Amino acid sequence: MAIKDYLRQRYFPHMWCPGCGHGIVLNSLIRAVEALGLDKNEIVMTSGIGCSARISGYVDFHSLHTIHGRALAFATGVKLSKPELKLLVPMGDGDALAIGGNHFIHAARRNIDITAIVMNNRIYGMTGGQFSPLSGVGKKATTAPYTTIDSGFDVVKLSMAAGASFVARTTVYHAIEAVDLLKRAIEHKGFSVVEILSQCPTHYGRKNKEGDAAMMMEFQKNTTAKIGSKALEKDPTLIPRGIFVDNPETPEYCESYDKIIETAMKRSQS
Asked: Thiamine pyrophosphate enzyme TPP-binding domain location, by residue (predicted)?
């Protein structure tokens, strides 16, 4: 199946701002799906509200464009009813870790077989540039004209602590690397988290004097390094990229649930 067959081409051109990194995330995701040779009828994408959530409108999969912060809750329901399907959940800062934070940690704790893609642009773009749980300290936003004082979450550390059995991080600058990590995440049996650092030149970049999209992508290149690289050894302040957790031995939730049903059925018949 060709890449174009996975897209709803009638909805293009997309609605993202010029320079937004989310289109690159969509590109990497579609290439990962194509490389795996997945039938689009075996994929379900659920999304919430925000710039990132619009991805579900552009893919020709079964898709649910749901309410803010509840994308993982809808995905959990679909997965439990149809465990044979591949669940993809693209989320922004809010859907994943603000209003959706509780769903996120419990999906990770359960280790349900869902691929969560956290598109981290450190801002709420669609609603006007408010700061988010991923903005960090000392950043400007429409709701923080004198800079933020809230610490930001570390998506990787939070995912690991909550129990996700596959955790990875990359950037939109490293788009080919993102394809590989997304492939690995989709193939993994369990809750997979792929954080992709993205840029929002319209709000975050402009307010924080980080320049245009190209400059922001250069920043992603220069401030990150692969796990195990010499660059990271020399400069531990760099943001690590790569796979942090890959534990295929952790029991998957739907399979464990099926065993409970089997046990209950046997007892009811005895």
From this structure: 49-196
Q: How would you label 80-113 residue by residue, b for 16+ Cβ within 10 Å and e otherwise?
A: eeebebbbbbbbbbbbbbbbbbebbbbbbebbbb
Q: How far is it, in rounded angstroms, from Cα 97 to Cα 91?
A: 9
CA distance 112 to 100: 16
Contacts of 59 (CB under 8 A, 6+ apart): 6, 7, 8, 26, 29, 30, 45
Query: Which pLDDT belongs to residue 4?
Result: 85
pLDDT tens string 143-194: 999 999 999 999 999 999 999 999 999 999 999 999 999 999 999 999 999 9
Flag whether pLDDT at 126 surpasses 90: no
| Cβ contacts of 37 within 8 Å, gap of 6 or more | 1
Which CATH code fits 3-269?
Answer: 3.40.50.970
pTM metric for this prediction: 0.95
CB 186 within 8 A of CB 166: no
Q: State how far the Cα of 141 lies from the Cα of 143, in Å rounded to an integer.
A: 5
Is 268 buried (19+), middle (13-18) or exposed (0-12) by CB count in 10 A? exposed
What residue has token string 């933020």? 148
pLDDT surpassing 80 at residue 270: no
**Residues 214-220, mean pLDDT to the nearest whole number:** 97
Domains of the chain, by residue range, sit at 3-269
pLDDT in tens, 47-66: 999 999 999 999 999 999 99
CB 158 within 8 A of CB 244: no
Query: Minimal CA–CA distance to 162: which of 71, 255, 72, 261?
Result: 72
